[in-house]
Fold:
Amino acid sequence: MYLALFGVSHHQAPIEVRERLSFPERYLPEALRALADVSDVREGVILSTCNRTEVYAVVETQVREAACGLLQEYLARFHQIAVAQFAPYGYCKLEQEVVYHLLRVAAGLDSLVLGETQILGQVRRAFRITQESGTVGSVLTTLLQWALLTGKRVQTETGLGRGAFSIGHAAVDLARSIFDDLSQATVLVIGAGKMSELTARHLMDNGVRIVLVANRTYEKAMELARRFQGRAVRYDTLAEELVTADIVLSSTAAPHPVLRRETVQAALRKRKGRPLFLIDIAVPRDIEPSVGELDNVFLYNIDDLQAVVLEAARGRMAEIARAEAIVAEEAARFLAWYRSRAVAPVIAQMRARLEQIRQGDLQILRTRLSHLSEADWAAVEAATRAMMNRISRTAIRRLKQETEACAASAPVPQYDLSTAARELFGLQTEATAADTVSAPTDGTPAADVVGLDPFPEENSAIEVKL
Amino acid sequence: MSSVALAAVALILYLIAAVCYGAALFLRTPAALPLSPGPPAYLPRIGRSLLWIGIVVQLASIGSWCVTERVTPFASEYGTRVVAAWAIAMAFAFMDRRDRWPALGVTALTMTSITLFTAFLHANSPIAGAEILANRMVSAHVIAILASFALCFLASGCAVLYLIQHHQLKSHAGGRLFRMLPPLATLDSLAYHAVAYALPLLTLGLVLGIAQALEEPAGKPVAAWLTDPHTLTAFGAWFCYLAYLTARLLIGWRGVRLQYLLLVALLVTLALYTVPTSTHRFI
Structure:
């Protein structure tokens, strides 16, 4: 069983291709069932967002071209599109490349806006839908859980997911530096355009409840106010509304300033020093720049807000290394578990085989050395067990080392020590038992879970007295 | 352990607590990030624990001094300053129970430490033997005044932070400092609450002082007590804080002007301890 991924994303694929390959959420269960029906696919997950469509699968083949071909054909069949139309824009990954990729995606490191946190929710949603569809097994379940854990760690342990991602975010951040409780703040939106709506929406998402809308066309103001469950105000009453508003968001298409210094100054006299946060996102500007010089007035125009966004972006850039380190650490932990799935049954079978040999030989000895006392037999038992442990310890240690080395970097060798051990000890070749090894979710090293170091040290020091 | 040694332990504890609050600010506020959801929980927790231990140790220091010298702590410059530092620490500890802002922790604990440090500079100050100091009403007068000034110091600290944050927002400076400070509204509210508790205490202290002066203690006439620059400055400070509350509650002022008023009040309060006095000297 091998992990495979085929996907298209904003990095290479134009929007036309991404649109053709996207999976609306309502079609996902059907798409997942179709994926599960593909021969050679044991498990499958689809992650479809506006910036990417990725199909993760556990497949029978470890040949890259074959694995990719399966997933590409599936996409082509489901979306009724020729492979050639999207394959050049896609990427194909196998085994640990898949793990690193998904963990980076969940951490927001592969996002269009670096560090954005929305992707974590999208991965979570994809996981939930996949679980409900029943197309996911132990490997992808564990991988997705690991991805969610990694994303959360990156969010909480680094600053990658924080800071203003947009003008709206920046406005909210600044408002929070002025007002302690946004739910008590009143926002006056001047202009009923798209930008005002988006920025006001951000403020509302962050607690603002009272929204007043003013627009030259009163009907448009009413329409926007209805969407915000706010109140429309007449454009000619702006001066009065300035007395009650805490945040003013202006984005009109007016060629001249809408708020002049005298208007704001008059309002300030009635406000008695209450802070007034003015957000001017119009070009040309709606608020006279000299308004910013007034006491208790904080005026930010589009450039100022963009500077906040850029500053946050620079801050996030500094966090990339920390986020990448977390991804690498979690990927290594996952891969240790993933590889151990193949080694655990080998170790168990090897120990069982040696034990079988030991018991057989002891039975023969019992018939030949019947004069020995029970104490002598206990010593013989201990000696043979110690011998068995000594023989197998090195082999087990080597298997464990190889598992860890594989998890850390190297690709899966074509002929690894697990295979060698199976052949040398005449063990079963199928590794179905591997699926029964559950993933550690509490940070326990995978090696401990599969019992890679099962022999206590004291066994090797038993003195044998015959 | 002597009183001074205990006070030194308390000073060290306050300094470490201040460092914890400071570290909480710096470690969890990466540059160019907005108000972080909060510093690592353990750092302010350690700071808070050390603050409370420091308060207890300092109380033990004051108690030990009183027992050893058999006088009230206000009989010496050293004792008065130690109690003043303790009052600031206590006032902040109560403020910190509700509004947990590491920036305030750093400010308040720095004030506490500086006050306690100045007490050490007067560790060998002479002890007054005046009979008047044994009077309980005098002790209550001093305690009320010191408690009110502790709260006023904290209010001034909030005002300073407010002005810094205001300047950052006005100049669009952004950056690390901007992210560390509480919102303007929070600072304004904290300063107001501190003064709202401080003014009644200050009034009580002054009333007790006047009541004591009417008895013409130490053979000095009432007029001498009431016209003493020390007393007049205390009334000046009282008037400033009253003006602050009036402006805020009755006129509805908010913002920068109020913070400047608090700073003026702080200067008057500090002047209280520098003006020459003929009545408030007992040595």
Q: What stands out?
A: The mean pLDDT of chain B is 86. Chain B touches chain A at residues 30-36, 165, 169-170, 172, 174-175, 178, 181-186, 189, 251-258 (CB under 8 Å). Residues 7 and 266 of chain B are 25 Å apart (CA to CA). The two ends of chain B are 28 Å apart (CA to CA).
